[in-house]
Design goal:
- The protein has 19 helices and 10 strands.
- It is α/β, with parallel strands linked by helices.
- The protein has 2 domains: about 180 residues, 3-Layer(aba) Sandwich (D-Maltodextrin-Binding Protein, domain 2); about 170 residues, D-Maltodextrin-Binding Protein, domain 2 (3-Layer(aba) Sandwich).
- The chain is globular.
């Protein structure tokens, strides 16, 4: 009888083990976009590494999707509403409200609270995730970023007898001192896309995105106008977009301009060692723009714990290191940021230093139109058709008045 009971108990244990193994063997469907074939291959290699090493029976199946000028986000939302969402997907913060308002994204608060690596990510970045959702919860998992900074020519600074600005006032003074002999101190982007570098002036003057008509914001705008009026930026500045400000800097027409690490390779190719960078310095306040790519988990995901394991691998695990090494994007995990290949790259290092003050524009229904209209309003101010105060009141109303 005892022998029979022992055999029966052993059989039950085996069945339990088989049942547990089956429960742990889960598949996570993952959608992502890639900017080129090399990045797509890297992602598939990361997926293979995670599947081979997670030790929890989790298999990620990656499906590459077209970005298609941003249609990716619309296609993802359509799929989710129709019941065809993946478990996890790469994501842009600007899409957050539409997904949250439709109840499509899983709340990540508890997962992050119980996550051993949660402190690897700066609190400012978590706050940005909350800002995007318009709630006090996190629905979007940080993955990698790009941070705007100021490119400058050390040889031009030496010739002008100045050092790297450490305050906003020193930056404005540098724009003046670097302007001589056909060279302009700063490359201003007054046309499309210029709202992000302009935001540095908004905050340095003492304003912010929520109060663009405040006294400090108006001061920042007046400083911006004065750079143009005093001739410290090219005459074409009101119409200059990305290609113009980069070309002007590379040609030696300007001594400083604002962009991110995505331009560093061509800067090194052009100047060798005679190019460096610093974060736009603090005035009354400090801010710089953060480009972003994150991941999200869908509420419909049946195996949320397994899905979070994959998201964590991308955020702070080996996937973070691999992706940022290959793509040149800025890692969000402190452990990865501290690795030699990132600390020894001066443009990566300054990007990491700027991350705690980096953020995004308000994510509102009005934002897209506000961005489209921004150049026209700014151009009027630069050309003297409206005052700094009138300019800022228009921008405030366009963003915040329903």
């Amino acid at each position: 009888m005892k022998k029979f009971l022992a055999l029966a108990l052993a059989a039950m244990m085996c069945l339990s083990m088989v049942s547990l193994a089956s429960a742990e063997d889960v598949t996570i469907k993952f959608w992502f976009w890639a900017d080129n074939d090399a990045y797509a291959q890297t992602m598939q290699e990361m997926i293979a590494d995670f599947n081979a090493t997670n030790g929890k029976g989790i298999t990620v199946v990656g499906e590459q999707q077209d970005w298609n000028g941003g249609e990716y986000s619309n296609n993802l939302l359509t799929a989710a509403i129709g019941g065809g969402a993946p478990d996890v997907a790469t994501f842009k913060l600007t899409a957050t409200p539409a997904f949250v308002n439709n109840g499509q994204l899983a709340n990540l608060d508890e997962f992050i609270a119980n996550w051993a690596d949660k402190d690897q990510i700066n609190e400012n970045l978590y706050n940005t995730m909350k800002q995007a959702s318009g709630t006090d919860s996190i629905y979007v998992m940080p993955w990698n970023t790009q941070v705007l900074y100021v490119y400058y020519r050390p040889s031009m600074f030496k010739a002008a007898g100045i050092g790297v600005p450490t305050t906003y006032e020193e930056f404005l003074e540098a724009c003046k001192k670097l302007t001589h002999d056909g060279v302009y101190g700063f490359g201003m982007r007054g046309s499309n896309g210029g709202q992000e570098p302009w935001g540095c002036f908004l905050y340095a003057g003492g304003g912010d995105w929520e109060h663009m008509d405040s006294e400090g914001a108006i001061k920042g705008m007046q400083d911006y106008i004065d750079l143009y009026k005093n001739g410290y930026v090219p005459e074409t500045a009101p119409n200059d977009g990305f290609s113009q400000v980069i070309d002007n800097f590379k040609s030696g027409l300007t001594a400083m301009t604002i962009h991110h690490i995505g331009s560093s390779a061509q800067m090194i190719e052009t100047f060798g060692d005679d190019v460096d960078a610093f974060i736009f310095p603090k005035g009354e306040g400090q801010w710089t723009s953060m480009g972003d790519t994150e991941t999200v988990m869908f509420e419909s995901c049946a195996n949320k714990e397994a899905a979070f394991e994959w998201m964590a691998y991308l955020a702070t695990g080996k996937g973070q290191e691999t992706w940022c090494t290959v793509t040149g994007n800025v890692p969000v995990a402190a452990r990865v940021q501290a690795l030699p290949q990132f600390q020894e790259n001066k443009f990566m290092k300054v990007s990491i230093e700027g991350a705690p003050v980096a953020g995004i524009l308000p994510v509102r229904d009005t934002t897209t139109q506000w961005i489209k209209d921004w150049p026209g309003v700014i151009q009027q101010a630069l050309l003297g058709d409206i005052t700094a105060e009138e300019c800022m009141k228009q921008l405030q109303a366009a963003m915040w008045e329903e």
